[in-house]
Amino acid sequence: MHRLSSSFVLGFHGCREEVAVGLISGAAFQASQNDYDWLGSGVYFWLSDPERALSFVEEKFARERTGDTPAVVGAVIDLGLCLDLSTAAGVNQARQAYDGLRDIVQLAGKEMPVNAGGADLLKRHLDCAVINFLHEARKQTRVPPIDTVKGVFLEGSPAYPNAGIMTKTHVQIAVRNADCIKGVFRPR
Questions:
Q1: Per-residue pLDDT reduced to its tens digit, 60-73
Q2: Residues 134, 69: contact at Cβ < 8 Å?
Q3: pTM score > 0.85 for this model?
């Protein structure tokens, strides 16, 4: 956990056009609560990448055949107390949370959640459980809550032959504390 990064960042959220209009008008973002969300529960943003936010929501609507009009809103986000999974300290926190979750699951005689969804592991059941366990453990021990979670994800196919750069690599932020969203706007 840290407050070492520059405090304010721009995040981009893909959604339906009607939702975008509401958000611009002051409606609250709805936190995602899926059991496969990569960074646990929160409002998800693509860091500094409105194009990726739009392509994600376009792919989602095409796959689901909703007929919805895709849109993107931008947000000024104060990272606050950030669990940054691109740092050694953040990864260490996740490892400790995994150990705690594993111990509890074993004591209960249950199975650990498993990440699934092909080579990209798009259904991150284990990662979600670990991050949400970390949030709950902090709450139970009266440690200050995490405001945001930030992670880097390698996704997609190689950008060129033998590349370590993937076509859909991105940095995502899950905002848990709505007060960290300082403003909402329409990107150009």
A1: 999 888 889 999 99
A2: no
A3: yes
